[in-house]
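Working notes for the structural subgroup meeting. M.R. asked for a predicted model of this chain before we commit to crystallization trials. I am recording the input and output together here so anyone reviewing the notebook later can reproduce the run.

Input as submitted:
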Amino acid sequence: MPADSSPGFAGETSARSAGHHQRSAASHPPRVSATSAVEVRRSSRRSRTVSAYREGDRTIVLIPARMSEAEEQRWVSVMLDKLAAQESKRILGDSELAERAERLSDLYFDGRARPASVRWVTNQNTRWGSCTPAEGSIRLSHRLQGMPEYVVDYVLVHELAHLLVPGHGPRFWRLLEAYPRTERARGYLEGVVAADRLPHLPAARSE
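Returned structure, recorded in C-alpha cell form:
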C-alpha cells in the first residue's frame, strides 16, 4: 500500500494510484539514492504531495521536481518510516516476539542473551520496555505496537542487553553499538515522547 503525505500539510493524503505515479514521473529520469534499495523519482506534475511504495525489493519515492536535495533526503527518511509503520501494523504475538528476540540475540550478541519469556504488556506507559535479569523476562509496552520494526527491534535489543549487563554503564552502551539503528530508533522514540508532551488544542465548537 503506497504511503502518501504532503510537505505543505502534515497528514494530507493523495488518492492517486501507483500507476499514475509511474506515468507522472516519466518526464524526469529516476535517480537512485545513495541507498541502492531506494529510488527517487521527480515529477514536474507533482506540486506538493510525496508518496512511496514498494516495487519488488526496491522502494520508490515520488517527489515534486522543485524539491531541494535537503528536502529530498528528509522526505525519503519520513516516507521510509511511514512505509515501515504501515507494514508493521500486524501485531506480533508473544510467541513471535520471543522468536524475534532470539534472532536478534543471535545476530548481535552471538546468542548469549536468552530470555525465558518475552511478552507485550499494557501497564507500561512511562517506559518502552523492561527486563528482570534474575527471571530472564522481558516485557515490551503495547505502545510500541504499530511503530517501525527497527524501533521495536531496538527496544528488544536494549532489553536483551540487560540480560548480559543489568545497569546502564559504559559496558551496556558498548553492547548496544552492535545494533546499527540505535541512534535512529532513540531519536524516533524521543520524538514520540516530545509529541505526547505537546499541549492539545481544544476541539473547535460549531455555531
